[in-house]
Design a protein that fits this description.
The chain has 126 residues and is α+β, with helices and mostly antiparallel strands. It has one domain. Helix content is 44%, strand content 15%. It has a 4-stranded mixed β-sheet. It is globular, with a radius of gyration of 14 Å.
Length: 126
Amino acid sequence: MIRQMPTLIFVYNADGGLLNAGSDAVHKLVSPATYPCSLCALTYGAVAKRPAWSAFLARTRMETLFLYRDEFRADLDTRDLPLPVILFGADGPVPEVLVSASELGSLPDLDALIALVEARVERVSR
């Protein structure tokens, strides 16, 4: 049996593409409280990845996959999950929800997100 590498799958509640990225950046600057992607808001500033998030991703020992809403819906979503979401993919065909949209929306800051992801990965990796 071939074991696949554990993968953290980050799915943003935003569509891909340059035009969408520009629109999202403006939305985050003008009206951050109404921006619909809490994962984006926690991990990115207006246009760049937060340094602490980059450091966390660099030290994780897992594969990472980043998908926009349109990519996820087209390729992986078989459950119509609320977005954003962080999934954990291991040996099964359907990734497990690691951090739900509602949990992401309630996190106060990036440090809390990183601590939660680390704790959940530890739990599911046992």
